[in-house]
Design a protein that fits this description.
By secondary structure, the chain is an alpha/beta fold. Helix content is 16%, strand content 32%. The protein has 4 helices and 19 strands. The protein starts with a strand and ends in a 10-residue tail after the last strand. The mean pLDDT is 96. The structure holds zinc ion. The site of zinc ion has 4 residues, from loops. Zinc ion binds next to loops.
Length: 280
Amino acid sequence: MQTTFEHAPYTAQRLTDGVWHIEDATRDRPPGLQRDGSFHGPGSVYVLEGTDAVLVVDLGFSYPGHALREIVDRLADGRAIRVALTHNHFDHTGALPQFQDVPIYVPVDDPVPGVAHPIPVRPGDTISWGGLSLQVLDARGHTAGSVLYYEAQRGWLATGDAFGSGYAWLFFLPDVLSVYRETLRRTLDFFRDKPEPLFLCGHRYQQQITPVPGMDPLTPRNPDLGLAYLEDMLTLTERILAGSIQGRPYEALGRTDLLTYTYGRAEIDTYPLGSAPLSI
Ligand SMILES: [Zn+2]
């Protein structure tokens, strides 16, 4: 099979043996600033290949039609399909209507309404299925129930938006930076005696593997996300909590009182310390 193909509105690309990345972008509609002045920020879907099954991690934005399912069916090539969701944001569950015939792993603390065949998963669980074995790790911060899926044999780590894909959005929980600091410490601890995993992040274009027109030039480029990125995230989180780093104004979700902080290869966008969280 080719290693890259388009099936509008998506492009599928084989990242490594057994891992496909699918995003809602094409040559005609690339990530970033468009000719009409709008900004296109695609979401990432991954297909992990087991021996007799495939696991789809996240479902991207909502589009009419069945294009995502058609791509997954093509990659599955007759193998059974299941879906695992990292968290319950709309840009990770959009194609749910195309996958209502298959079991879907849903984090218990990030419930997703309307899933026909949900399998609740909690941190500490292991999903063993179809030749894949994925540990479910607690990564709360971006949302209350965000999880990571880690395939230890192959070194794959699907992160959703838990660590961002170059920058993290920490808007939705009270005292979110303290929660996030614990998630980073726990994750770095978990990987201390393990090889560097392959990060499969929720918005891969934000890593700026190729430069993205219209991205803030101060946002760090992260073509190779790894544990060093999490170390920088932890340092940044600690410095924000200590009040020893200066934020810049940041606008998102209709709010103008937000702040963005950078350190090394990490960026965190959040509400001012002591303020109330936002709802999405
Ligand atoms: Zn999210």
